[in-house]
């Protein structure tokens, strides 16, 4: 059975996450591990990446993925939120 491997540029097209995010997820065992073809060539098994994506989709569809809470815009320093007065109330 032929296994297809992908390098980082192709992985970025398939999985739109930052390199550091992918690296951290790999370290935690939450993303397929890369391996070395040569001392300077790192690749991922495409089948493992596709399986990971399928699992993430199923988890998202089942609402298992913990979503980030929305930011508290009142704590912004730049462009602070204006008071809730409407234009005609001024």
Give the secondary structure arrangement, pairings included.
Layout: E1 5-6, H1 8-14, H2 19-27, E2 35-38, E3 41-45, H3 46-61
Antiparallel strand pairs: 1-3, 2-3
Overview of the molecule:
The model has no long low-confidence stretch (mean pLDDT 86). It contains 3 helices and 3 strands. It has helices at residues 8-14, 19-27, 46-61; strands at residues 5-6, 35-38, 41-45. The chain has 90 residues and is α+β, with helices and mostly antiparallel strands. 36% of the residues lie in helices and 12% in strands. 4% of the residues are buried. The chain has a domain at 5-65. Strand 2 and strand 3 (41-45) form a beta hairpin. A 3-stranded antiparallel beta sheet has the order 1-3-2.
Q: What attributes does this structure have?
A:
3-stranded antiparallel sheet; elongated; alpha+beta; 3 helices; 90 residues; single chain
Offer a concise description of the structure.
The chain has 90 residues and is α+β, with helices and mostly antiparallel strands. It has a domain at 5-65. It has helices spanning 8-14, 19-27, 46-61, and strands at 5-6, 35-38, 41-45.
Q: What is the share of helical residues?
A: 25-40%
The CA-CA distance between the termini, in Å, is 73 Å
- Give the SSE string: EHHEEH
Average pLDDT figure: 86
Number of helices: 3
- The strand count comes to 3
Which spans have pLDDT < 50 for at least 5 consecutive residues? Answer: none
Shape verdict: elongated
Class derived from helix and strand content? alpha+beta
Strand order of the largest sheet: 1-3-2
Q: Which sheet architecture does the biggest sheet show?
A: 3 strands, antiparallel
If you compute it from the alpha carbons, what radius of gyration comes out, rounded to the nearest whole angstrom? 21 Å
Strand percentage, roughly? 5-15%
